[in-house]
Amino acid sequence: MQQIVNFIIRNKTFLLFLLLFSISIFFTVQSHSYHKSKFINSANFLTGGVYNSINNISEYFALKSQNVILAKENNRLKSILYNSQTKQNSSYIDTITFNAQYKFYTAQVIKNSYNTTNNVLLINRGTKSHIKQDFGVITDKGILGIVDQTSKNYATVLSVLNTESNISAQLKNSNHFGTLKWDAKSHVYTQLIDIAKNAILKKGDTIITSGRSSIFPKGVLVGTISDFKLDPSENSYIINIKLFNDMANIEHVYIIENVNLPEIKKLLNE
Amino acid sequence: MNNLLSIHSVRFFVLVFVQVILFNHINFLGNINPYPYILFLALFPVKNNRTAIIGLSFLLGLSIDFFLDTGGTHAAACLFIAYVRPVILKFCFGTIYEHQTIKFETVEFGSKLTYFTLLTVIHHFVLFSVEIFNMSKIILVLQKTLFSGIFTILMCLLITIIFTRKTK
After folding, report:
1. pLDDT tier at A219 (50, 70, 90 boundaries)?
2. Quick one: which of A124, A193, A216, A270 has the most CB atoms within 10 Å?
3. Cα separation, B15 vs B145, whole angstroms
4. Of B71, B131, B137, the CB nearest to A27
């Protein structure tokens, strides 16, 4: 016993180092697996508060460019609204019968990140605004990511520029689908893998979300094909996609809630 | 002693704060950021016991991790350089270290540069290999280590030169 105690005292620096090092590796491994980084994330009161107050100041510098983006989007939406030919009966009797499948919330990105291999964004909406895990996040130009951890006022978003995120996407002009995976090389491009070999691809073709994951509705824009090649086993294509979003300049985002998600999940688990 | 304690605690908070607010948003050439918060560990007094510096390095790394959503990668890298620091000190400063009389303001520029370079390269290598966690992407790890490392060393030298009191 005496010897064990002596050993511990003699090597206390090394043992402390080993203990703390394994704790930090444990946290890292946890953050690498989807939805597990419960403890270390920036959606808490302190870090969220700091980022929020920084953003309160820095948002003024981007005000002009963000206004242009929002005005462009308004313009686009107005053109859709006034050009739509179908006059639907939009008078609902009461809100209970209003059964749209997707609900939208607006939010602001208060911490953007695109330079590491596992990029996580922070938005200023949380459980107080009914934001939950697995809600989709998009901008006016296209897909951004999926809500991961939430706190009362903040939520973290797993960006498409994250090697852990898998989002189902497809070609716009055919129904061949694959998975979005990022190779961590550039924040302008992402990769679409597992596209069947018989799909007809052309440079400049549009990629949209497939709606298979039931997080995003079908048809959210992702990007255009910049180049493509067969994977080493020569069974499927690996496509390099140029994202529509400028990931370095993101401020106003929309959060999508699929109202039927619990029902779909329940059905799949049965 | 009290004065020393206050200097280092202030330095801890200021470096974390500046790292989070400023240095993570530089994004030079797209994705190169410096991590000069390791100055806290580099300039930590030599005489203090090693248990303290290992505990503090864990805290420092973890507080950066909280802000950057990186799990425990910064904590791991900080712990590692805190643990190997005595070896590096001995290599860079030789006899002065053995007499435990190093004053970082007065050492000559060459050995200071070697000291910072070694610490930075080890820190960044551990940081990026733990972050990427994939042996097949070793080229990416080395590339990031090189570019970020150069940037960090420059920042560390600039900060130490600007904030040193003239002793002459």
Report:
1. confident
2. A216
3. 21
4. B71
Lowest mean pLDDT across B7-11, B77-81, B91-95, B141-145: B91-95
Size of the A and B interface in Cβ pairs below 8 Å: 109
Return all residues near B4 (Cβ < 8 A) that are at least 6 apart.
Answer: B45
> What pLDDT shows up at residue B117?
92
- Whether residue A251 lies inside any domain: the answer is yes
- Looking at the 3D structure of chain A, how many domains does it have? 1
ipTM above 0.90, yes or no: no
Taking the C-alpha atoms of residue B109 and residue B92, their distance in angstroms, rounded to an integer, is 11
In a domain, A34, yes or no: no
**What's B104's DSSP letter?**
T
A35 vs B: CB within 8 A: no
Closest partner residue to A47 (CB to CB) among B31, B66, B132 is B66
Q: Which of 154-183 (A) contact B at CB < 8 A? A: 156
Pick the residue from chain B with its C-alpha nearest to A185.
Answer: B140
Domain boundaries, position A191: 40-85+102-270
Kindly report the length of chain A: 270
The per-residue pLDDT for A91 is 55
pTM recorded for the entire structure: 0.81
Cα-only R_g, chain B: 16
Whether the Cβ atoms of residue B59 and residue B13 lie closer than 8 Å to each other: no
Mean of all residue pLDDT scores within chain A: 84
